[in-house]
Structure formats: structure tokens, C-alpha cells
């Protein structure tokens, strides 16, 4: 899989890809609750593309995976006693990581996470952090397998899930 930043002109293609991912999730054994135009929100996707924070995984010219890397976090992150002391600009977060369902089980999510870790190191970050909806078994397995440590469970609000338990993970760099 080749991983690259989405171009500014690719917003509509990115949005269509996330729609396809969401549609495919409807019949998956685990459904994280993503909904078209609620999560990920079009404004979030557009801003991520425009700021160069959205990355696409491609095979044979087709998008099969995506993620956002930035410094933005839910206010619930402030409730966590993070092991690595770092200012917000010293932490890179992973958001909206997904693999198109027909391509699942081939290690593509691990490739994305490894790419994110390399990017964080290249940028001189002290840590990477992320949240996982409690019960999202694929993600609960993925991140520890990539070196992330579970830190805490926090109740946070997101438009697609409402007030819900999220597991907080960190990777010290």
C-alpha cells in the first residue's frame, strides 16, 4: 500500500471514500457508529485535507484506507493522567483511521499506524495519543499491537456516539 497526503482538490473523493466505508460498516460484525456527515463531519474532512493532515492508503490507484494526523483532541483528553508529559504541539493524534471493509484483515491498518508513528518521529513529537470507542475490538487489538499503551477510560461526547466510554491510548516516542 502506498500512503500519501490527500491533495486539496480531493475533498469530494475523500468524502466519497468515507461514505463507502460507512456504508460497508452497516453489515460488519462491529459497527463503531459512524454516520454520513456526522462522523467524520464534512467540515472536519475538508479542513484536514486543506491543512495536509489527511492521509490516504492506496493500492493500484484505489483508496483502501485513510486517517487524519493532527494535534487536535477532545476536551476529555484533559481528564487523563498521561504518562508522557508533553505540550499539545508535542503530541500527534490519530483520527478517523479506517480501512475499506473488503480490504480488511490484510494488515493495512497496521501499515497506516506505522506510517503515523514514523511521521510523528520525523516531526519530533514526544508522544502519540488516540481514543477508541469502548468495545471497538479491532481497534482495541490494533493499537497495542503497534506499541500503544492503554492509559484510562474516559466518558467523552462525540456527535456520532453521544456521551460514551472511550479508551485512551498513548505511545511514547
List keywords for this structure.
Aminopeptidase; 7-stranded mixed sheet; single chain; 7 strands; 173 residues; alpha+beta
Topology (SSEs and partners):
Elements (H helix, E strand, L loop, with lengths): L1 E4 L5 H15 L16 H9 L3 E6 L2 E9 L20 E9 L8 H15 L4 E7 L3 H9 L3 E10 L3 E11 L1
Parallel strand pairs: 4-5
Antiparallel strand pairs: 1-2, 2-3, 3-4, 5-7, 6-7
Short description:
The chain has 173 residues and is an alpha+beta fold.
Q: How would you explain this protein's 3D organization?
A:
Helices cover 28% and strands 32% of the residues. The chain has 173 residues and is an alpha+beta fold. It has one domain: Aminopeptidase. A hairpin with a 2-residue loop joins strand 2 (54-59) and strand 3.
User: How far apart are the termini?
Assistant: 24 Å
Order of helices and strands: EHHEEEHEHEE
Q: State the CATH architecture.
A: 3-Layer(aba) Sandwich
Biggest sheet record: 7 strands, mixed
CATH topology: Aminopeptidase
Give the helix/strand class.
Answer: alpha+beta
The unreliable regions are none
User: Taking Cα atoms only, what radius of gyration do you get, to the nearest Å?
Assistant: 15 Å
What's the number of domains?
1
What percent of residues are in strands? 25-35%
Q: Could you name the CATH homologous superfamily?
A: Gcn5-related N-acetyltransferase (GNAT)
**CATH class, anyone?**
Alpha Beta
Helical proportion, percent range:
25-40%
Overall shape: globular
Continuous helix count: 4
How would you state the average pLDDT, rounded?
A: 95
Structure summary, number of beta strands: 7
Strand order of the largest sheet: 1-2-3-4-5-7-6
